[in-house]
Structures are given as structure tokens and as C-alpha cells.
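#struct-help
A.M.: can someone run this one for me? Single chain, 92 residues.
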Amino acid sequence: MGSIFKTKDLGYSKLENSKNEAKPYLNILAYDNIALEKLPINIRDGRLPQNSHEIVLSRTMQTNGQMDIKVGDKFTFRYRKKIFRRRSTKPK
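D.P.: on it. C-alpha cells below:
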């Protein structure tokens, strides 16, 4: 039988230093400890977070966002849920 783990989409944060104008935001996800063990997360530098003030950033942050981020750097971001609104296709 497989393991059950939890993930949660916390929202999005604008990246002030991103050079990618088409996608200048960060999608923020939360994982429980089991998810961190079971999902294919490959740490290239540093380690997995050990408290709520630490995060893992994808390689895409440096390549796609063209951001110079190093292990140990500190930054602040605000996040919010992205809301998708659907327009009605019914005539009024």
C-alpha cells in the first residue's frame, strides 16, 4: 500500500527581481514531511527546510527567472491566492 501525503498550494508572490516579464511570480507550495520524502525533490545545493522560515527554490528560479539566488540568501515576499474568474457564456 502506498503512502499518503499532503501538499497545499498557498498562492503566488510577485518576484521583484525576476527578469522574466511573462512570468514574474513564484508559485508557493507547502509539503508535509512524508511528501518531502516521497516526491522527486532533488536538492542540488543546501538541504531541505528545517523550519517555517526556510524554503526550497526550484532551479527554474535561476534559469527562467534569471535571478541570482544563493543558499542562505534572505528575502521577503507576500503571497496571495490566485483567483480565476470565469465569464458566463450564457446570453443575458
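A.M.: thanks! Helices lie at 33-38, 60-63.
D.P.: also worth noting: Residues 33-38 form the longest helix (6 residues).
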